From TrEMBL:
Domain Threonine/serine exporter-like N-terminal: 28-266
Subcellular location, record wording: Membrane
Domain of life the protein comes from: Archaea
Pfam families xrefs: ThrE (PF06738), ThrE_2 (PF12821)
Membrane topology: Multi-pass membrane protein
Protein name listed in UniProt: Threonine/serine exporter-like N-terminal domain-containing protein
Length: 425
């Protein structure tokens, strides 16, 4: 059994006088791995980054095993070896912090900074203090929710309440920013609050529509990216990390569903009201405007840097257009597959081009446009509402969509490798 330590501890495998160098490099790599894991980066990407940085500093990474909950890394040069085992945990980082991490990775990949400088930079990036900005969070989440709603909601009434419910979720999110204990129950709390308001509105006849109106307001918590990354890792034979992410994603979906059911009961409505009708957008142009509004919401909500917005918009609109073309030509599964292929290729290209938009920053907004997480939540909701035949068929479609997206990510990564520009990793 591998020993776990809460804080990094270096076990030198050689009594060489030069062990200080691997000690500092290991500490830097450990802190970097923790930061990337907190950001939700796939373990294959983390392992690749750590190995390239080791090589840049003249060391060989003999063993790198990065999992969502712990890291094992062993490095060596001609004179010494060092091993580290440490805990880490997944989470969410604002995208401006992720961008700064990738800038640090580019510098470390060229050995432009010392490990000590790298450690200080990571601490500065992760521990940055943000002031509460309720207006920014509420407006950002309202735009985020409205933009997603414009992809499929057919009425102005539905769009208005979609944005209003998003503003409520944004208020809860802003209030919980520096409250760690509240963060643990945030999905349930948000789902309960938003669903209670929604179902009371339905009961009073103020809101006209199905559960589809409420889904965009919970989309921030719906783990579409987590589930897709889990499938991607499983497809790449990273069984432990992939299975862990899938379990995490399913648990979050169930927590959200529990919050919705409690909200329904508080409103005094039967489970028959948990339905999500398939709808079409308000006008033909509505989805395209919706993607732009969604991007503005992401800019405010996820703190995307100004200089990264062009790359984010390029990947977002290209992925959406390619997905729509695939849906039209061969159906939804092909649309999800080809959309993820192009998203991966374009994100990799932009990261290695003069724009230098970090790959992860550019593709995260596009994951919400591919919407497998929302589909999964709606399918589970239909199952609770006892629409068994339709919900089971939808769940099968969701699983196949995840397979299509993860396959697209793998194929896109293979195709994108020859697109390398310059010397950046």
């Amino acid at each position: 059994m591998v020993p776990h330590t809460e804080s990094p501890q270096i076990n030198s495998l050689n009594d060489s006088d030069e062990r200080e160098s691997p000690h500092q490099l290991l500490k830097f790599l450990t802190e970097l791995s923790r930061a990337l894991t907190t950001a939700g980066i796939a373990v294959m990407s983390i392992e690749s980054i750590l190995k390239k940085i080791c090589q840049a500093y003249g060391f060989k990474a003999e063993e790198v095993i990065s999992l969502p909950t712990f890291l094992i890394i062993k490095i060596a040069d001609d004179d010494s070896k060092a091993l580290e085992v440490t805990l880490q945990k997944p989470g969410v980082l604002p995208l401006d912090q992720v961008s700064r991490l990738y800038e640090l990775i580019n510098q470390a990949g060229n050995a432009e900074i010392t490990p000590e400088q790298g450690i200080r930079r990571i601490n500065e990036i992760i521990n940055v203090k943000r002031q509460h900005n309720y207006i920014k969070n509420i407006l950002g989440y309202a735009l985020f929710s409205t933009g997603l709603g414009m992809l499929f909601l057919p009425t102005f009434n539905g769009l208005f309440f979609c944005g209003a419910l998003g503003a409520i979720a944004g208020l809860i999110l802003a209030y919980s920013e520096d409250k760690t204990k509240l963060t643990l129950v945030l999905p349930v709390l948000t789902a309960f609050t938003v669903s209670t308001v929604f179902f009371l509105g339905v009961k009073q006849g103020i809101i006209n529509g199905s559960l589809t109106i409420m889904v965009p307001a919970l989309a921030y918590f719906i783990p579409g990216a987590v589930l897709s990354t889990g499938m991607f890792e499983l497809a790449a034979n990273n069984l432990v990390s992939g299975a862990a992410r899938l379990v995490q994603g399913v648990v979050i979906l169930l927590l959200l569903l529990f919050g919705v059911i409690v909200g329904l009961q508080v409103a005094g409505l039967p489970e028959d009201y948990i339905i999500a009708n398939t709808t079409t957008p308000l006008y033909w142009w509505a989805p395209y405007i919706g993607v732009l509004i969604f991007a503005l919401g992401m800019y405010l909500l996820m703190c995307i840097r100004n200089k990264d917005m062009l790359g984010v918009l390029i990947v977002l609109f290209t992925t959406f257009l390619v997905q729509q073309a695939g849906n039209y030509l061969l159906g939804g599964l092909f649309g999800a597959f080809i959309g993820s292929v192009i998203m991966t290729m374009l994100g990799t290209f932009l990261e290695r081009s003069k724009l230098r938009t970090p790959y992860y920053v550019s593709i995260i907004p596009a994951f919400w446009i591919l919407v497998p997480g929302a589909l999964g939540f709606i399918s589970l909701a239909a199952l609770v509402g006892q629409n068994y035949s339709s919900s089971i068929a939808s769940l099968i479609q969701v699983v196949l969509t995840f397979v299509a997206i993860s396959t697209g990510l793998l194929i896109g990564a293979v195709i994108a490798d020859p697109l390398k520009i310059g010397s950046s990793p």
